[in-house]
């Protein structure tokens, strides 16, 4: 004669709306653009959107991994605000090394190491000192952005290595290299997070740390790993960025908001409304198509920012609704 | 069942003279436990007796300061969690520690995944989950069902299956029945017996002595960090076990309540809310303890919520001290001097991460502030007074409530309203999940409240508790008050008969002699 059993909860209206609605909305947006702009659905244009989305997408994958491992609570969960700044620093490192005449391997290796080092720093601060990720990565973002300024003196460092050439102009099966990079990184991370024990444990660690601990999972090691992956994503995106802009650029930090928006938007594309690489890929493409569609329709791209803001609010509000206890 | 106790079986697990200190306090002071193969070994003790510390030592979470752990006669100085798992000791935790957003097979296998090379073998996991659930429990769950969509009992089953996957030799159940209703408890007991018959050694921790009596072959009683007795529960009365636990008579579990109730405090007439309840008439006078009970869905819980301003009623009237009251929010209710002790103690009753002092003064902060500034001294004085009066066992006013035992958390939740000087107390399952010693204290406090002129309305499904405490008991069935009983004219069977609808409505009971 103790507390009543929990009633089996049915998926609530908000949840259903989100699950079905997100894909419908995606399709509707594509349809509107297709009708409004004749070349929108041309294969060349679609491939172009994929390539343009590579930078934001790869950064968002990193952030998504961190959110999976830290929990999707925006304030106390996993968050890596340093991804965009990491890209800036990594690109600057690559351009500097390339211009200084280092070989391809040294350049690529040290750039990846830069990204990993940023991830290591975040991991140490979040896992080692137990600082809230929001503050910890805000601090590391500033640190990393500062280092980039020291290195570049706030100028553009042009660079044109064979790797960048290939990334910028390479085409395979009619699809540009950057698009392949985006899909390749997505595929690797989907394999890692959806198909290995590590991924399952990462989800457990993120949303249910106590359960994970009780199951004998090394919680802190998994969280640490998620920041390393995010750091690596930062430097991978740096190659794409350096290829796109033919060198390092200033102001990479401005991408941060879009990256955060995409990662959270991604949750509505997953069946269980949780962060996932697949969902983030769809969200990346949605934002990419919107930017592209607006360009084709001659609408100012400033509107895209506004629309992203509205989408974030919508996602946060709806997921709040669907999670609320009756 | 009797076959299991005849041959003396091998001791699988033995803890000898375990000592564990936390700062100055000795949580364990030489506790021992011997568990045999193919037997269920009960572990009982008051909150604070050291049960959970002992379990945590066994689980490798705490490192003992002295003592030894023997598995199959081989001694270990201490365990680490991985080692415990390798030795085949598994735990079914009290709190359902399963990820709500995971599917059934993910929840069963996370941390102990089936692999195919480097990959997760989801198909094998699904197949095996199905097989295990069917084999052990005859249970079929819809494919892809999420843990959060299952009932408490089903989640409990998942925890057990999770532990069985690695073919354990010792299973430790830590208060497994707390979240289950009676029929589910029966099922749980059957399952435990079956596991025992398969040769497992089982440690079963419970507050419910009936369960211990029905299930266990041996029971160890812990008191003050020591094992004070090991007895055969079938040959020992629950009263004697309870006495061993608390080392005092528990006969006076229920206080003698105030003899002469005063003026009417709460008057409810014709209250109704949608399909939840209707035509509710109810009176609580000052100095009176009134009971309310009913099955899930009877509307009793909603009624209590309405009286606290949650879920406002659509019809009828509520008077407090003779004044009509339109309760629409809990804020109003608190301002009127109404206090609610919610059933969900850990979520709604206390703020777990705040200190005892912060919890106690939370509802009455204006009393402790001058010119808008809080006087820590006044807060501290009040808290110390209440800690003493309610006998809250804690490291002091600054101790975090999370560190307290369930019974002491409940006392803190109650102290909050004491500090507010509330006059009407609505208690929702006040003794759920707390041990017999703490129960007696809570009951004593309820009696004290009544003597001081407060009115108390208790919603409980623990019928002996209502019979022991209340002057009048209202039984709800399908949204109506199906019967009222005066103290002394009711017993558990009568109450249950009305609550389940086995007896037709007897709306006008013998005494409806309340003035007004």
From TrEMBL, chain A:
<keyword id="KW-1003">Cell membrane</keyword>
<feature type="transmembrane region" description="Helical">
    <location>
        <begin position="134"/>
        <end position="151"/>
    </location>
</feature>
<feature type="transmembrane region" description="Helical">
    <location>
        <begin position="277"/>
        <end position="296"/>
    </location>
</feature>
<keyword id="KW-0812">Transmembrane</keyword>
<dbReference type="Pfam" id="PF02653">
    <property type="entry name" value="BPD_transp_2"/>
</dbReference>
<feature type="transmembrane region" description="Helical">
    <location>
        <begin position="53"/>
        <end position="71"/>
    </location>
</feature>
<feature type="transmembrane region" description="Helical">
    <location>
        <begin position="103"/>
        <end position="127"/>
    </location>
</feature>
<feature type="transmembrane region" description="Helical">
    <location>
        <begin position="171"/>
        <end position="193"/>
    </location>
</feature>
<keyword id="KW-1133">Transmembrane helix</keyword>
<dbReference type="GO" id="GO:0022857">
    <property type="term" value="F:transmembrane transporter activity"/>
</dbReference>
<comment type="similarity">
    <text>Belongs to the binding-protein-dependent transport system permease family. AraH/RbsC subfamily.</text>
</comment>
<dbReference type="GO" id="GO:0005886">
    <property type="term" value="C:plasma membrane"/>
</dbReference>
<feature type="transmembrane region" description="Helical">
    <location>
        <begin position="21"/>
        <end position="41"/>
    </location>
</feature>
<feature type="transmembrane region" description="Helical">
    <location>
        <begin position="251"/>
        <end position="270"/>
    </location>
</feature>
<protein>
    <submittedName>
        <fullName>Bacterial inner-membrane translocator, araH family</fullName>
    </submittedName>
</protein>
<feature type="transmembrane region" description="Helical">
    <location>
        <begin position="224"/>
        <end position="245"/>
    </location>
</feature>
<keyword id="KW-0472">Membrane</keyword>
<feature type="transmembrane region" description="Helical">
    <location>
        <begin position="302"/>
        <end position="321"/>
    </location>
</feature>
<dbReference type="InterPro" id="IPR001851">
    <property type="entry name" value="ABC_transp_permease"/>
</dbReference>
From TrEMBL, chain B:
<keyword id="KW-0813">Transport</keyword>
<protein>
    <submittedName>
        <fullName>ABC transporter</fullName>
    </submittedName>
</protein>
<dbReference type="InterPro" id="IPR003439">
    <property type="entry name" value="ABC_transporter-like_ATP-bd"/>
</dbReference>
<keyword id="KW-0472">Membrane</keyword>
<keyword id="KW-0762">Sugar transport</keyword>
<keyword id="KW-0677">Repeat</keyword>
<keyword id="KW-1003">Cell membrane</keyword>
<dbReference type="InterPro" id="IPR017871">
    <property type="entry name" value="ABC_transporter-like_CS"/>
</dbReference>
<feature type="domain" description="ABC transporter">
    <location>
        <begin position="260"/>
        <end position="503"/>
    </location>
</feature>
<dbReference type="GO" id="GO:0016887">
    <property type="term" value="F:ATP hydrolysis activity"/>
</dbReference>
<keyword id="KW-1278">Translocase</keyword>
<feature type="domain" description="ABC transporter">
    <location>
        <begin position="13"/>
        <end position="249"/>
    </location>
</feature>
<dbReference type="GO" id="GO:0005524">
    <property type="term" value="F:ATP binding"/>
</dbReference>
<dbReference type="InterPro" id="IPR027417">
    <property type="entry name" value="P-loop_NTPase"/>
</dbReference>
<keyword id="KW-0067">ATP-binding</keyword>
<dbReference type="InterPro" id="IPR003593">
    <property type="entry name" value="AAA+_ATPase"/>
</dbReference>
<keyword id="KW-0547">Nucleotide-binding</keyword>
<dbReference type="Pfam" id="PF00005">
    <property type="entry name" value="ABC_tran"/>
</dbReference>
<dbReference type="InterPro" id="IPR050107">
    <property type="entry name" value="ABC_carbohydrate_import_ATPase"/>
</dbReference>
